[in-house]
Specification:
Helix content of chain B: 10-25%
Distance between the termini of chain B: 17 Å
Helix content of chain A: 25-40%
Order of helices and strands of chain B: EEEHEEEEEHHEH
Strand order of the largest sheet of chain A: 1-7-6-5-4-2-3
Number of helices of chain A: 15
Strand order of the largest sheet of chain B: 1-2-3-9-8-5
Oligomer: heterodimer
Radius of gyration of chain B: 14 Å
Distance between the termini of chain A: 45 Å
CATH superfamily of chain B: RNA polymerase II/Efflux pump adaptor protein, barrel-sandwich hybrid domain
Number of strands of chain B: 9
Strand content of chain A: 5-15%
């Protein structure tokens, strides 16, 4: 057996910045004012913000120390199913740091923003090609915001047609945010069950689809990591009753360059640039959730829309059917630059990325299926779903195994999701892990399964190596401490 | 987690296949979630209950139970009007874990049609659903 990669090292306890604060300490010196002071009307002023007072070295050490407690894609494999935690190439950062982008201002005029606008226009075109859609907006701030934008477009479409509808169909293998997005548009979610093999059947859709149903929200590949093979037939059923098909593109990493959602009956799709297109994902983002739509829905997209003319790029505000702005200015521009850099550097390699993502997941599925119980024994897409069924006799749960994985130097996979699988363990290796790393991960899980039989207490108290040991999730939820 | 033979399933109450239990007390029915449900959910951190006066049809979602693992819906065993909810759960959601049939009850209802109660599952039938 090889030496485990995870070990311990010198890391530091670190207080909150407010606890380190000393009155008068400051990170920079401001020159003495050489103009007479002029007091502001006291009605216009308040006390200054309550910020900690610190020197530069205090702040640098604070965040460096916190980063040493952390685990990210730059430290190791992060197989978080449904989240596509792929490696973020550093060239993305180089491009986003170019002064022309970092010093651009969204309120600068069109004539001095042509470069930024060209990038946005080209990114829209690229995303339209990848998804097979006719028009794209880059405004939405992240995936769920993209869902909301897409659902507002669907809502506006039905309103424009003169008859609003009241319901939306959502299968049990959809993302959990889907019903929330639909509810915000006033639609009632009609939940339907996937078939025995984890795939939605046309019959289940036909049974509930009627002319009061706005459409269906379908995640493809679905949250079981399976491709919805009946998607075309399902789309036909929905379209025949005047409904629209919303595609949740969070799992697009499985099908780039292979399937164009716009060609299989999807009318609206959102993409997560922070998943599929390698922009930073952890640490709270920001994300970016562009949506693509078919031609008949383009008039409803958020405004302003960007257009290309002989004279360059311009903002189009004359969009009478638009749902309006979804975000101030033009989306998370810095994230857009990183995604564009990724798409241009990958080129046709995007298809290879998807193929390898699928291959890696199937490799893990095949190698671990005798160790962990497989939820659905059929070819998967970019992620595979196991459960803790085999470990139950030893009173070891999914949570215990996930925690123990940290001691082996891997970030835990997604657990207890999707809900349709009891005790789910959802592994998404992505294309960026080498065979050697994936083999180490597989071996770690096999070792953990052995420990579950022989020394279950080792798992029940895990993790042991990280600075922060097993968290008391129950106390955190029952008695949250919300003060800063 | 408990094996099926370790579950506490009283004989004098009825069950649903969504894992609620129903106890009859005159014309009022008390509703909660079963030992199986609380055991599967794990430590419960929040219970969302309806308000007295709310009415629900059979099968309607009337509230949710949240554990550190997941949020689960509770479904109305039979149609009726809520007459009382267990206020103690607001500060003590763990009562559902420690005393699911007694202090951890969820709500009391006045059924629309009292005879619906008889159609609910008895202990043996509920056990059959658990064994699949």
């Amino acid at each position: 057996m090889t030496t485990p990669t995870a070990t311990t090292g010198l890391i530091f306890n670190e207080p909150l910045l407010w606890e380190k604060s000393k009155p008068g300490r400051c990170g920079l010196s401001i020159p003495t004012s050489d103009v007479p002071s002029s007091p502001l009307d006291s009605a216009l002023t308040t006390n200054g913000p309550d910020l900690p007072q610190l020197s530069e070295v205090d702040v640098t050490r604070h965040f460096t120390r916190l980063s040493q407690w952390n685990f990210g894609v730059d430290s190791g494999m992060y197989p978080l199913g449904s989240c596509t935690m792929k490696y973020n190439p550093k060239t993305n950062e180089v491009q986003a740091a170019r002064p022309g982008f970092t010093t651009a201002h969204p309120m600068a005029g069109e004539q001095v923003s042509q470069g930024a606008m060209e990038l946005m226009y080209n990114l829209e075109q690229d995303l339209a090609e990848i998804t097979g859609m006719d028009a794209v907006t880059l405004q939405p701030a992240a995936g769920a915001h993209g869902e909301l934008t897409g659902m507002l477009v669907i809502h506006a479409y039905h309103a424009k047609n003169g008859k609003q509808r009241s319901k939306i169909i959502i299968p049990d293998t959809a993302h959990g945010t889907n019903p929330a997005s639909a509810s915000l548009c006033g639609y009632e979610s009609i939940n339907i069950k996937s078939g025995e093999n984890g795939i939605l059947t046309p019959e289940a859709v036909a049974e509930v689809m009627d002319e009061d149903t706005a459409g269906i929200m379908i995640t493809n590949p679905n949250t079981l990591g399976l491709f919805e093979e009946n998607i075309k037939e399902i789309a036909d059923i929905v379209h025949a009753k005047g409904g629209l098909v919303y595609g949740d593109g969070a799992n697009m990493n499985a099908i780039m360059g292979i399937v164009q959602p716009g060609k299989i009956g999807i009318d609206v799709i959102h993409l997560n640039l922070h998943k599929t297109f390698s922009t930073p994902h952890g640490g709270g983002g920001p994300g970016s959730g562009p949506i693509g739509v078919v031609e008949k829905l383009a008039p409803f997209l958020p405004s302003p829309r960007i257009s290309k003319t002989d004279k360059g790029y311009s903002w189009q505000f004359d969009c009478p059917d638009t749902i309006g702005r979804m975000l101030t200015f033009h989306g998370h521009f810095g994230v857009l630059v990183r995604a564009y850099a990724y798409i241009r550097t990958m080129g046709k390699g995007l298809k290879t990325a998807s193929q390898l993502a699928v291959l890696n997941a199937n490799y893990i599925k095949a190698k671990l299926k005798d160790t962990l119980a497989l939820a659905y024994d059929r070819p998967c897409m970019h992620e595979c779903v196991f459960s803790d069924k085999n470990q139950q006799p030893h009173h070891v749960t999914t949570l215990d195994m996930a925690k123990r994985l940290m001691d082996y130097g891997f970030h835990p996979p997604t657990v207890y999701f999707p809900l349709v699988v009891h005790g789910a363990i959802m592994i998404e290796p992505t294309e960026t892990e080498s065979k050697e790393t994936i083999d180490e991960f597989i071996q770690a899980f096999k070792d953990i399964a052995k420990e579950a039989e022989e020394t279950p207490e080792l798992l029940q108290t895990a993790p042991n190596l990280p600075k922060v040991k097993r968290m008391d999730e129950v106390a955190a939820a029952r008695k949250p401490c919300l003060c800063g | 987690m408990k094996e099926i033979n370790e579950l506490n399933l009283p004989d004098d109450i009825k069950y649903t296949d969504d894992h609620e239990w129903v106890k009859k007390d005159g014309e009022i029915l008390t509703i909660g979630i079963t030992d199986y449900a609380q055991d599967q959910l794990g430590e419960i951190v929040f219970v969302e209950v309806p308000e007295a006066g709310d009415s629900f049809d059979q099968g309607d979602e009337f509230g949710t139970v949240e554990s550190v693992k997941a949020v689960s819906e509770m479904y109305m065993p039979i149609a009726g009007e809520v007459v009382e909810v267990n206020e103690a759960l607001e500060d003590g959601p763990e009562l559902v874990n420690t005393s699911c049939y007694d202090q951890g009850w969820i709500m009391k209802i006045k059924p629309q049609n009292p005879s619906d109660f008889e159609a609910l599952l008895d202990k043996a039938a509920y056990l059959d659903t658990l064994r699949g």
